[in-house]
Specification:
The chain is of the alpha/beta class. Helix content is 51%, strand content 16%. The chain has a single domain, classed as Rossmann fold (3-Layer(aba) Sandwich), CATH 3.40.50.300. It has eleven helices and eight strands. Helix 3 packs across helix 6 and helix 9 packs across helix 10. The longest helix has 18 residues. The radius of gyration is 17 Å and the shape is globular. The structure holds 2'-deoxycytidine-5'-monophosphate. 2'-deoxycytidine-5'-monophosphate binds next to helix 3 and helix 6.
Amino acid sequence: MSGALSEQIVKGDRFVVAVDGPAGAGKGAVCRAVASRFAFSYLDTGSIYRAVALLSLQKNIESDQELGELAASMPFEFRQVEGVGFRGFLAGEDVSDALREEQVGRKASHVAAVPQVRAALLTFQRHYGGDKNIILDGRDTGTVVWPDADLKVFLTASLEERAKRRALELQGKGETVSFQKIRDMIARRDARDAGRTHAPLAAAADAQHVDTTRLTLDQSIDCVAKMVDKMVGNKPR
Ligand code: DC
């Protein structure tokens, strides 16, 4: 472990799994299942940017300084709700559905570019879960947030496959969007995520790459669970 970050917030004994990758590779579903299986704490890091966005819309906050303060004091947590799964709570209120709204997503990409917000959320992510073992997913969890993670996974799938999964998901909700349109949207998002200046999507040099293109969800979960199992077993306590 080295650098100012790790000196600032000590990792301690907790086992940290950082999962990064492009949209649609299955990060969320894999992390939730692994968190349940090993009783780890779970954090979907995209949701915390969305939570700042939701609060800023509700409170009409625009300035970078105030957005940073909002991010630093945000009472947000993920909790596993019996029979439902992981849900996001702001000050005790389940805001999971609101976080997925289109306008919140748009605002999130704006607040994610504010340096004060990124700094506050970095501290948030390092503290999240206290001393509990944790699995978190996002774009920069293995490179920026937890460069000292015990296990780093870079989860990918081909553009075609990710577009297919998204199309099926939308079909399940009764929405019909052309495959071509979905594919183009995901390709644009990939380019944006990889090309941005703040925390661009990139695999850590020591990440284990898992390509889920030809894997079912259960196979993807098993693959990451096996890595965790092997490492938790080997970690001196
Ligand atoms: O993955 P998502 O759509 O829920 O992410 C919401 C926004 O937050 C998106 O604009 C990217 C940004 N984000 C980020 O900057 N860093 C992360 N680790 C996760 C998400």
